[in-house]
Structures are given as structure tokens and as C-alpha cells.
Amino acid sequence: MDKTELLKLQNYLRRLFNNANIKVVPRPRKTDSAEVMIGDEFVGIISLDDEDGDRSYAFNMSILDVDLED
């Protein structure tokens, strides 16, 4: 994914979640996925699926049980 594509994904997520603090940043040594951050906190991965010429994206966010503790 190039910078233009990352920016489009970032803008989409910002609109979808109404949060201007979302950032989509490239992953080191990976070209088929990017990291999603809110501020300085990592929240998930966006993976590119470019199979059969149809381009789509999957957003994966893991939530640990310790994150749910108050």
C-alpha cells in the first residue's frame, strides 16, 4: 500500500468513527498491511486483499482481557 492509499484509509476511518486522532501508518518491511493508531496507541492492523483483481481491506482489532479491567 502506498502513501495515497494509506491516507484514503485513514480519512475513511476518521469519518467512520468520527475521530480525527486515528492514524494509518505503514508497517516495517510489509507492503500488504498497515497499523492503525489512535494517538500513540496501537489499536489494530489493516490487511490488503488484492485477490482476483478485486481490492478490499480487512481491519483486525484484538482486545485483551486485561484491557477490559477498570
Choose one word for the global shape: globular
State the secondary-structure class. Answer: alpha+beta
Distance between the termini: 37 Å
Order of strands, main sheet, comes to 1-2-3-4
Helix count from the secondary structure assignment = 1
> Ranges with pLDDT <50 over ≥5 residues?
none
What is the beta-strand fraction? 35-45%
Give the rounded overall mean pLDDT: 94
Helical fraction: 10-25%
Largest beta-sheet details = 4 strands, antiparallel
Number of strands: 4
Walk me through what this model shows.
This protein has one helix at residues 3-17; strands at residues 22-26, 33-38, 41-49, 56-60. It is an alpha+beta fold and 70 residues long.
List the helices and strands and how they pair.
Layout: H1 3-17, E1 22-26, E2 33-38, E3 41-49, E4 56-60
Antiparallel strand pairs: 1-2, 2-3, 3-4
What's this, in brief?
With 70 residues, this protein is α+β, with helices and mostly antiparallel strands.
